[in-house]
Amino acid sequence: MLTETERRAAADAILDAERSRVPMVQPSKQWPGMEIEDAYRIQDLWAEARIAAGARVVGHKIGLTSRAMQLASKMTEPDYGRILDDALFNDGARIPAGRFIKPRIEVELAFVMGEDLSGTGTLVHDVLRATEFVVPALEIIDYRTELPRAITDTIADNAAFGAIVLGGRPVRPFDVDLPRVGATLAQNGIIEDTGLAAAIMGHPAAGVAWLVNKLAAVGGGLKKGHIVLGGSFTRPLDITSGDVIQADYGPLGAIGVSFA
User: Fold this and answer.
1) What's residue 64's pLDDT?
2) Are 232 and 108 spatial neighbours (Cβ–Cβ below 8 Å)?
3) Cα separation, 90 vs 231, whole angstroms
């Protein structure tokens, strides 16, 4: 375990890397005693600093929702980070690639909460009842630390969250068979990957239920209006300036963005 001073130093280093766009040495290398609890506390301190500078938390992202990614990270559960309001983009946006260090993009579904949801024992049907609508989303992931990364590095670095793009057609959660929602991900006109939302823990709402239970352990929860990124069901795709990305969700519409 780290001291609070060490945790704050790690959070400050991540903030500096974010501002300078120069990746820092992995926190797990600088502070070898770092554990999962330390990593989430570092993320808390990072978020507190960003909020103090004017940002606002508008939701959460969930990562490591696929079995393959958990095995690769030697984890038995997902992880989570915060979504801040200055990292929200809409369909059709032209996004400056230079605001990121090494951006990659993933296909996801976003849950927009219609009511507060908190407490232990939360299940998929609780999430569906509390969700106002589900909407297609792209997550841009980014690393503020050098590679390779331990899971503690990823968690401390806000679970590698970079930005979110919302688009397509919002749907009520009970109006669609969510696990069967599929999408194609195209880069510069070439389809690079396809996937089904069932890849997210069997049901895309399962990750949200996990998150609510995890937040309950630290006295938190989801608020009405919060956006929750449920996890990726395609592989991460490297993006650079000049790329045009199109994600087609079939009946749920499509999202198109470009990078300048």
Assistant:
1) 85
2) yes
3) 18
Q: How far is CA 216 from CA 20, 27, 41, 171, in A?
A: 34, 26, 15, 27
DSSP state, residue 51: H
105 near 233, Cβ under 8 Å?
Answer: no
Please check whether residue 145 is in contact with residue 46, taking contact to mean a CB–CB distance below 8 angstroms. Answer: no
DSSP one-letter string for 96-149 = -GGGSSS-EEEEEEEEEESS-B--TT--HHHHHHHEEEEEEEEEEE--SB-SS-
Half-sphere exposure of 251 (CA within 13 A, CB side): 9
Q: Which pLDDT score is estimated for 66?
A: 73
Q: Tokens for 240, please give them.
A: 């650079």
d(CA 118, CA 32): 34
At 65 the pLDDT is: 85
Which pLDDT score, from 0 to 100, does residue 69 have?
A: 62
CB atoms within 10 A of CB 42: 29
Instruction: Tell me if 216 sits within 8 A of 210, measured CB to CB.
Output: no
The predicted-structure confidence for 158-211, as pLDDT tens digits, reads as follows 999 999 999 999 999 999 999 999 999 999 999 999 999 999 999 999 999 999
How far is residue 140's CA from residue 207's CA, in Å, rounded to a whole number? 18
* Residue 194 token pair: 């396809």
SS3 6: helix
182 close to 196: Cβ distance less than 8 angstroms: yes
CA 191, distance to chain mean position in Å, is 23
Confidence (pLDDT) at 77: 86
What's the length of the chain?
Answer: 260
> In the chain, which residues have pLDDT < 50?
none
What residues form DSSP beta bridges with 39?
none
